[in-house]
Amino acid sequence: xxxxxxxxxxxxxxxxxxxxxxxxxxxxxxxxxxxxxxxxxxxxxxxxxxxxxxxxxxxxxxxxxxxxxxxxxxxxxxxxxxxxxxxxxxxxxxxxxxxxxxxxxxxxxxxxxxxxxxxxxxxxxxxxxxxxxxxxxxxxxxxxxxxxxxxxxxxxxxx
Length: 159
Known about the structure:
With 159 residues, the chain is mainly alpha-helical. The chain is built from 8 helices and no strands.
């Protein structure tokens, strides 16, 4: 590559990169990296050097933004932040209040519905087994669960 060719493709890479990034400093850096990678192809017969320069520039842009996204995600995750691992006192109080409210709502359900819900959702028993043990059909078991969940949802909605 001659100096004129070098200047031409470096400027071309800068234009391609600047159109995508709108950042002068980043465009300078990435166009320089594009040129360095183009130099690796020196001495080879390349039919479309301009196309190669564009491909290298676009790959560098993609790589740059991928690494930026990873860094942003890493910055958002509390690495060794012990305070983030433990809920605040307010969150603990709120959780305790929700549990107490859920217990009151469960206690207000009809006894059969409450028993069906507990067996199905807490103990994970199949509908058929719950139905046999409580002498109701599996379809009735599913209806009791659905109604219990609706009741819980309605009464806990604003909480």
